[in-house]
Specification:
The protein is mainly α and about 170 residues long. It is globular and about 55 Å long. About 75% of the residues lie in helices and about 0% in strands. The longest helix has 14 residues.
């Protein structure tokens, strides 16, 4: 995806992109996929200035900050706001659950991750998050079941291998 970032960057210079948050989100995703989280974060912050209450932007920025060691309370607040704006979005529900998991709050994390996994059983990342939370909660059988389900729908061999290791060894 590293080839996509320069293309999106050029698109942002077009007059048709002025004032629109969507191209900035796409550019951020391309930068993130190429391993440039600081650049992706800057693009997401720009998208947020254009659309401060856009759930997709809040979700990406909050999840990214949780994953990449950003300001956890701010990230959690963004994810809570995204969830309030779009409560039925399984990706946002997963992100909020994952944020609670990462902060050690399994009581809040588990119901959210379970709801996200039920809504999107085809999403391997959500299934893996649920398995990780079950494992931390001491629910080993359910963790392995969630990881196996995630492994079945995982597209990437690297993801399937990582899940196989979790199934065999746990976290």
């Amino acid at each position: 995806m590293s080839e996509a970032a320069p293309v999106y960057r050029r698109l942002l210079d077009r007059p048709s992109a002025a004032g629109r948050w969507e191209p900035w989100l796409q550019y951020a995703a391309a930068l993130d996929q190429s391993g440039d989280w600081p650049g992706a974060r800057a693009a997401l912050l720009h998208a947020q200035t254009l659309a401060p209450n856009e759930p997709a932007v809040l979700n990406y920025l909050g999840y990214g900050d949780i994953t990449h060691g950003g300001d956890v309370p701010k990230a959690l607040a963004m994810l809570q706001r995204a969830s309030a704006l779009r409560p039925d979005d399984s990706a946002i529900t997963d992100s909020l659950g994952w944020a609670y998991f990462r902060t050690g709050d399994l009581a809040h994390a588990l119901p959210l991750l379970e709801r996200a996994a039920q809504a999107s059983p085809e999403n391997a990342e959500i299934g893996e998050h649920l398995g990780d939370a079950y494992w931390r909660a001491g629910r080993r059988f359910e963790a392995r079941y969630a990881w196996r389900a995630a492994q079945v729908v995982a597209d990437d061999a690297k993801d399937r291998d990582r899940l196989a290791t979790k199934i065999a060894d746990g976290l």
